[in-house]
Amino acid sequence: MKNQNAINLFVLGFGKVGQALVRQILSARDLLNKHGMNLHIVGLSDSRALLYRDEGLTATQIQSALTHKGQGQSLEIMDSTHSVDSIDRLLKPGDILVDTTASPHTTARLLRAVEVGSGIVLANKIPLCGPWAETQKLFTYPNIKYESTVGAGLPVIATLKYLLSTGDSLESIVGCLSGTLGYLCSCLEEGLPYSQAVKDARSLGYTEPDPRQDLSGMDVARKAVILSRTAGIPAELSDLSIEPLYPTELEKVSVEEFLQLADQEDAQYAGLVNWATAEQKAPRYTARITPEGIQVGLDLANKASPLGSLKGPDNYIAFQTNRYSASPLVISGPGAGIEVTAAGVFGDILQLARESHRRS
Ligand SMILES: NC(=O)c1ccc[n+]([C@@H]2O[C@H](COP(=O)([O-])OP(=O)(O)OC[C@H]3O[C@@H](n4cnc5c(N)ncnc54)[C@H](OP(=O)(O)O)[C@@H]3O)[C@@H](O)[C@H]2O)c1
Question: Using a 6 Å cutoff on CB, does residue 315 contact ligand 1?
Answer without folding.
Answer: no
